[in-house]
Amino acid sequence: LAYFIGDAVDGLDLSAFHARYEKDGPRNQPFHPAMMVKVLLYGYATGVFSSRKIARKLPLKPEYVQTLLKA
Question: Which of 7, 46, 61, 71 could lock 35 by a disulfide, CB 3.0 to 4.6 Å apart?
Fold first, then answer.
């Protein structure tokens, strides 16, 4: 599932996310937009809908880390 979501997000056009931060440079973009989309989609696909619960699971679940490494 992690690889499927990673490949699916890699195929998306995320220029709208990048455009918002282009004028101020990368310092205002603490996390890569593709990484955030992957984590949210993986959380939703596994039944975790709360962003706080997703954040708590990040360091504990290797599936989440696997998703992030492909960002």
Answer: 71
The pLDDT of residue 59: 74
Distances (CA, A) of 6 to 18, 22, 33, 53, 62: 18, 23, 12, 20, 14
Alpha-carbon distances, residue 20 vs 2, 12, 14, 37, 47 (angstroms): 27, 17, 11, 15, 29
**36, 42 contact by CB (below 8 A):** no
pTM of the model: 0.74
